[in-house]
């Protein structure tokens, strides 16, 4: 947990120019057994705080949508509603593939509409498709066909691959999309979608 803030802000907050929009990006924490825990981040433009969800489940669309809902509630100063949403979610059993969860707030004062969030558990055991998979869509938009083929070949050969981008959201989407292209195989080596300054030695 002590390392999480360094991954949520993998740049100098004082020197980095603020992004013009909300950025969604991820990082990965790997334990000694090789099990990965993903961090899903929601960073508003010019913000000095970051919303982050840690999970072993690679459910990008689900957690980004949840972070958007939490961010909207906080922006409207609806802290109790945000806490209710998260507590409601924690009480739900883990859904099966393609199963949906609907979260509805308790009765609100007159004139205040209840919030409604619906999440569908993705199928992580199949090849992703466009446009349903935001990571793959981002990869196709940001990277040329020739470079995608070269990246795929490098991953098959288990080469060390370094990706860089001007936006954190684009960077981490392309990293995870590249790994997803290996289906039905999996990338078993070191995976660092976001590289904070204290881990730059991994580049050498």
Write the layout of secondary structure elements.
Blueprint: H1 4-8, E1 23-30, E2 36-43, E3 51-55, H2 60-75, H3 79-90, E4 100-104, E5 116-120, H4 134-142, H5 145-156, H6 168-180
Antiparallel strand pairs: 1-2, 2-3, 4-5
Describe the structure.
The protein is of the alpha+beta class and 204 residues long. The chain is 33% helix and 15% strand. It has helices at residues 4-8, 60-75, 79-90, 134-142, 145-156, 168-180; strands at 23-30, 36-43, 51-55, 100-104, 116-120. The strands form two sheets. The chain has a three-stranded antiparallel sheet with strand order 1-2-3. It has a two-stranded antiparallel sheet with strand order 4-5. Strand 1 and strand 2 form a beta hairpin. Helix 2 (60-75) runs antiparallel to helix 3 (79-90). It is globular and about 55 Å long.
Largest β-sheet summary: 3 strands, antiparallel
Largest sheet strand order: 1-2-3
How many helical elements? 6
Kindly report the average pLDDT value.
83
- Please trace the helix and strand order, writing H or E for each element: HEEEHHEEHHH
Protein name: DENN domain containing 1C
Domain UDENN: 1-204
GO cellular component, one term: cytosol
InterPro entries: cDENN_dom, DENN_C, DENND1A/B/C, Tripartite_DENN, uDENN_dom
How would you describe this structure in keywords?
single chain; 204 residues; alpha+beta; three-stranded antiparallel β-sheet; two-stranded antiparallel sheet; 6 helices; 5 strands; 33% helix; globular; DENND1A/B/C; guanine-nucleotide releasing factor
């Amino acid at each position: 947990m002590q390392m999480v803030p360094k991954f949520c802000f993998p740049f100098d907050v004082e020197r980095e120019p603020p992004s013009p929009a909300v950025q969604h990006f991820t990082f990965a924490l790997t334990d000694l057994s090789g099990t990965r825990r993903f961090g899903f981040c929601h960073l508003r433009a010019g913000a000095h705080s970051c919303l982050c969800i840690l999970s072993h489940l690679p459910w990008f669309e689900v957690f980004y949508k949840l972070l958007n809902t939490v961010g909207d509630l906080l922006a409207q100063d609806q802290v109790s509603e945000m806490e209710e949403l998260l507590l409601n979610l924690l009480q739900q059993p883990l859904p099966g593939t393609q199963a949906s969860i609907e979260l509805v707030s308790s009765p609100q004062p007159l004139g205040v509409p209840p919030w409604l969030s619906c999440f569908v558990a993705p199928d992580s055991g199949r090849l992703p498709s466009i446009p349903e998979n935001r990571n793959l869509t981002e990869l196709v938009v940001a990277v040329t066909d020739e470079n995608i083929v070269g990246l795929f070949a490098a991953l098959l050969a288990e080469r060390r691959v370094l990706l860089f981008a001007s936006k954190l959201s684009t960077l981490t989407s392309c990293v995870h999309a590249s790994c997803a292209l290996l289906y039905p195989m999996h990338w078993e080596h070191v995976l660092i979608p976001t590289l904070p300054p204290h881990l730059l030695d991994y580049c050498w």
